[in-house]
TrEMBL record:
Protein name: Protein kinase domain-containing protein
Gene Ontology MF annotations: ATP binding; protein serine/threonine kinase activity
Species, as recorded: Paramecium sonneborni
Ranges of Basic and acidic residues composition bias in the record: 428-445
Keywords: ATP-binding, Kinase, Nucleotide-binding, Serine/threonine-protein kinase, Transferase
Length: 478
């Protein structure tokens, strides 16, 4: 069988170096000792029970270590080791994340995770996002297998409009998911969209969801906060696959205001839901893109959940609005059917008249601008130096390696709710946070499921957004 990758390497021995060849064939790593006669080979399965480590010196990878019964180090040229690292990324578990990355600042928060901006130690101009998950909470809430189900979904769903998972690390107290860094949130540009922009963006969104559904996955938490861009409107990425599943829908989960009614009204003893739940969430997003307003509104969480569950649609803004295409309104109504069996599917959406009408040549613009606007671009900055608390700043990677921490800033919470059984009133009451945090008016998903105790810097900008990688580079150079 032809190998996917092959490189020469060596191991340090007391009686001299021994030469080896490492090959990747399908889902196996084959390590052959070519110094001895006859040659001997060892096979390692590529899965999440295999741990891999790296040695770095002078910004170059020197060796790769496979942790089995012992820690075996194999030395080779840096270029081949980087290729091997890329091939294994997301398919095995790496160790020692602070060997390869510096965490710069906190840029987001999930249900039981924090997201950090990373800088590569191999190339200081490369930046990544890292989802850091507390191991105790992971094991208590979803289990190690549940986490790696999410990881497997992201590995399987390789698509130009889906966030790419690059590497998975496991530390003593946390798991780390390293991904591409996308610097602009969809929520920042929602009110700036014209019809051409909406057409371009929504088609990418539906195409990505259709790809997921064709591969048997449902996202279950589609919302503006889980949509990112990288520079232009042709570079949309869906993020956060924490609720993604290939199983039948038998659990209540999602974000109030975007979750499908069949999930909120679910009786797990007698019925279940399917991928049509994502179509409803897409419809709510589409409505907000067209109107700049939330579909389900209310004076409190309970009212919003009740309107969401009953699918009390407010289409008043669409009536007589000449700016909204008739085809868009027709598509919207088909996506927001309360009965999922009557709801349009993702493939049919792409064949709908809204997309099949003759498309004009769209420039890669938003309102005649070359790039997506950044409301805070004039004040973006890295906060420095760190104000240590009690003489010690706790790194998300290692409390013993202070040099790996450079900066950190406040984040906007990204509320996601995983709902147990009970009435809408009970669900709302059980998920109301004991300690409320001040949130911007744009954060309308109403829930924050937990408060985090991480040490973060105070900033005067409540609407702070992390800078682009290019801006970070300029700042460090200065």
């Amino acid at each position: 069988m032809e190998s996917d990758f092959k490189m020469e390497c060596f191991r340090h021995k007391l009686l001299g170096n021994k030469q080896y060849i490492i090959q990747i064939i399908s889902n196996k790593i084959i390590i052959t000792n070519i110094s001895d006669e006859p040659n001997t080979s060892n096979e390692l399965d590529i899965n999440y029970n295999l741990f891999v480590d790296f040695k770095v010196k002078r910004k170059q990878i020197q060796a790769i270590g496979f942790i089995t019964d012992k820690h075996h180090w194999y030395y080779a040229d840096s270029e081949n080791l980087i290729k091997l690292k890329q091939i294994l990324g997301g398919r095995v578990v790496f160790k020692g994340i602070n060997t390869l990355y510096n965490p710069l600042q906190q840029i987001g928060q999930g249900t039981f995770s924090n997201v950090y901006l990373l800088q590569s130690k191999l190339n200081s101009l490369e930046y990544f996002a890292c989802k850091c998950l507390d191991k105790v909470q992971v094991h208590e809430k979803i289990g190690r297998q549940g986490l790696f189900d999410e990881i497997q979904a992201m590995v399987a769903l390789k698509h130009q409009n889906i966030a790419e998972l690059l590497e998975v690390y496991e530390g003593d107290v946390q798991y780390y998911m390293v991904m591409q860094y996308y610097d602009l949130e969809f929520t920042d540009i929602l009110k700036e969209l014209n019809n051409e922009d909406i057409h371009i963006i929504f088609k990418q969104l539906v195409t990505a969801v259709n790809f997921m559904h064709e591969n048997g996955y449902m996202h279950r938490d589609l919302k503006p906060e889980n949509i990112m861009f990288s520079d232009c409107i042709y570079q949309l990425r869906i993020i956060d696959f924490g609720l993604t599943t290939r199983d039948s829908g038998k659990s209540k989960c999602g974000t109030p205001g975007y979750v499908a009614p069949e999930i909120l009204n679910l009786d797990t003893k007698i019925n279940e839901y399917n991928e049509k739940c994502d179509i409803f969430s897409l419809g709510v997003i589409f409505y907000k893109m067209l109107t700049s307003n939330d579909l389900f509104q209310g004076s409190n969480h309970e009212e919003i959940l009740e309107n969401n569950a009953k699918c009390n649609n407010n289409f008043d803004m669409l009536k007589g609005n000449a700016k909204i295409p008739k085809q868009a309104i027709d598509l919207l109504k088909k996506m927001l059917q309360i009965d999922p069996t009557l709801r349009i599917d993702s493939k049919s959406i792409l064949q709908h008249q809204y997309f099949t009408v003759e498309e004009q040549n769209h420039n890669n613009t938003i309102n005649s601008s070359n790039h997506l606007s950044r409301k805070h671009s004039s004040v973006l900055k890295i906060l420095s130096p760190i104000q240590k608390q009690n003489g010690m700043f706790i790194s998300p990677f290692s409390i013993h390696d202070e040099e790996c921490i450079e900066n950190e800033a406040l984040m906007q919470p990204i509320p996601t709710v995983i709902m147990k059984g009970g009435s809408l009133k009970e669900i709302a009451k059980s998920k109301t946070p004991e300690k409320s945090r001040k949130q911007s008016k744009d954060i309308t998903k109403k829930y924050q499921t937990s408060d985090f105790d991480d040490v973060v810097l105070e900033t005067q900008q409540s609407n702070y957004r992390p800078p682009k990688p290019s801006q970070l580079s300029e700042m460090y150079n200065k």
